[in-house]
Design a protein that fits this description.
Elements (H helix, E strand, L loop, with lengths): L1 H23 L11 H32 L17 H29 L7 E8 L2 E6 L4 E3 L2 E4 L4 E7 L4 E4 L6 E4 L7 E5 L5 E7 L11 E7 L1 H16 L5 H11 L25 E3 L5 E3 L2 H9 L23 H15 L4
Parallel strand pairs: 1-5, 4-10
Antiparallel strand pairs: 1-2, 2-3, 5-8, 6-7, 6-9, 9-10, 11-12
Helix pairs in contact: 1-2, 5-7
């Protein structure tokens, strides 16, 4: 019994030390949503479970290596043990019970974080290579950043225009895939609790620029959110806005600037700096002038004429979702970047 007592003490001490270590290393980011509370509770339980299992295995192993090591001059074989039915039943039933407990607990937490609020703010989230777009259908507003009022549940409807993406804000904890195809929309509910700025990341490897598929998330008071919505809605309806300004906004919201730089920096696709009116060499060896006709074709049929050096890049058909006015605004913005008067 003295061995079992000694090992029990060692296991308890190791469990406490490892558990406190795991819970003090800051592996979890700050909580910023109502859903993060129960999820973090489950995380902390798992941390302590990991600490106990580590201590149970390592504690027994270290104690056995020290106390039951072969003594000098001892050449006898160890005791031959064929099995222990009672022990085997115990180490089968206990893990089974733990797994069932975690399954029921997890289902309860899942039901809690998915509980709908009839007054939830509806936001349509579209993932594409390699950017996010956020639409507020109730207000007719579209944005390249996700803005949410604090303390109000948001119902995010996620979709993709190309490959599988995954919407994830670490501080919110919850995560959901964005799938391509009609009828493949997925829902995610989140209730922000902390005012601040966060980042939505793509948690599904989706191509060459996956690591940079981020977008700002801004949580603000309700009154500021309503003021922003009113300002954006007024801007969308205004006919007096500068076409270059509109083009820049549309380019950001449509994900164009996720692949095309505006300062000459190398990116996934050709830079827009000094592009308008320039000569471009194509993969078939011919050359073309990047005038209005060519650029419109490049937006609507991106694979029709591929620029030399970018033959391995597949541009998504973003132009299918753009109006004629939005395409003209993008062209005005591109033209402003080249300083061309053509």
């Amino acid at each position: 019994m003295k061995h079992f007592f000694a090992v029990t003490v060692i296991v308890l001490v190791l469990t406490v030390l490892v558990g406190l270590g795991l819970n003090s290393t800051g592996m979890l980011p700050a909580q910023a949503s109502l859903e993060a509370g129960p999820i973090d509770t489950m995380f902390r339980f798992h941390f302590w479970a990991i600490a106990f299992l580590f201590a149970l295995i390592v504690g027994f192993m270290i104690y056995s290596m020290i106390v039951f090591r072969r003594k000098p001059g001892d050449e006898e074989d160890g005791k031959y043990i064929t099995g222990n039915t009672g022990l085997e039943i115990i180490w089968t039933l206990i893990p089974l019970g733990v797994v069932l407990f975690l399954a029921f607990w997890g289902a309860d937490v899942l039901a809690e974080i998915r509980r709908p609020d009839p007054q939830a703010l509806e936001v349509t989230v579209t993932g594409r290579q390699w950017s996010w777009q956020f639409e507020y259908p109730e207000y007719g507003v579209r944005s390249a950043e996700l803005r949410l009022p604090v303390g109000k549940q948001a119902l995010l409807t996620l979709t993709s225009t190309d490959v599988i993406h995954a919407f994830w804000v670490p501080e919110f904890r919850v995560k959901q895939d964005a799938l391509p195809g009609e009828g493949m929309e997925r829902e995610l509910r989140v209730t922000p609790t902390e005012i601040g700025e966060y980042t939505v990341r793509c948690a599904e490897v989706c191509g060459t620029a996956h690591a940079y598929m981020n977008a700002p998330v801004i949580v603000m008071p309700e009154e500021r959110f309503q003021a922003w919505i009113a300002e954006e809605a007024a801007g969308e309806e205004s006919t007096d806005r500068d076409p270059v300004e509109v083009g820049q906004q549309v380019s950001e919201e449509s994900g164009c600037l996720a692949c095309h730089s505006t300062d000459g920096t190398e990116s996934v696709g050709p830079t827009w700096l000094d592009l308008y009116g320039a000569e471009r060499e194509l993969t078939d060896g011919s050359a073309v002038t990047a005038d209005r006709e060519y650029l419109v074709e490049a937006i609507l049929e991106p694979q029709a004429k591929i620029v030399q050096g970018y033959e391995n890049i597949v541009m998504p058909p973003t132009g299918e979702n753009l109006t004629d006015q939005e395409i003209e605004a993008i062209l005005a913005y591109m033209k402003s970047l080249s300083g061309s008067s053509q």
